[in-house]
Amino acid sequence: MGVNDGTVTGYAKILDNGSDGDRWNLVILSEGYLASQMTSFHLHALDIVNIFTTTPPFDGLSSAINIHRVDIESNEEGADDPTSCSGGTGTAVDTFLDASFCGDPSRRDLLTVDQDLAVDTAFDKVINTHAVLVLVNSSIYGGSGGNKASVGVAVSSLHPDAFNIALHELGHSAFGLADEYDNNSGAQNHHPGPEPSQGNVTLVDTYPAIKWNVLIDPTTPMPTKKNGNCSKSDTSASPVPAGTVGAFEGAAYYHCGVYRGEFNCKMRNLKEPFCAVCDDIINAALFPFFP
Ligand SMILES: [Zn+2]
How far is the CA of 147 from the centre of ligand 1 (A)? Predict the structure, then answer.
């Protein structure tokens, strides 16, 4: 399995806002596509371009971004789907980046690839690569994010919610955002500290000490929402209108003691837009690449 199971056959710059040396460069790699399926990969890559030019906050930032496509044909299609995960079909295929579901025995949806090979393949075509997105030719729900050599690698399948996975994972791998959810199976009750390094979660619940204070209306109650039962994720409604920035308890896999900036966010729920705090962090990361 691996590099002998496919071939890099093409390259194209599909969103061109200027010299690669001046812009933030996203490189999209195909994984688990047959030679006969390259046309559909090209359409999927254009879907990503469309998302980056129409989805906040990237719509207002897209002039800072170049997007590139690297065509990799694999010998077989799809991704491995081990039976060690519930629902796994046992599919085992020979693909260039060794994509596999079930990256953790408890999570079939953890779709991983050979990150080092993905980064090497991207840099081979685009020396100024800032982030890599691997599109895996499978309709099963899955994705992942990770960092190798300071370049983020996000992985996404073609499931209808896949592009939301891709954006969420790029939030981790390209922009250093934390997960804001606290309802995963391993979630714990009280955050033990210290203060998380990521800009979108914090142990601080007072204004103006909180790190996203510039986004908070000083009349907003702080903390804005406490979790009344730290043994579980708080599922009650928000006490403030959607879009209010404050301190909402429950984030980063802890029910209590750690706060997120809005009631909802793509880093908490894939189908939601990014919150204003995450928007601000993405803005700051892309600012140096504006024309
Ligand atoms: Zn957020």
Answer: 19
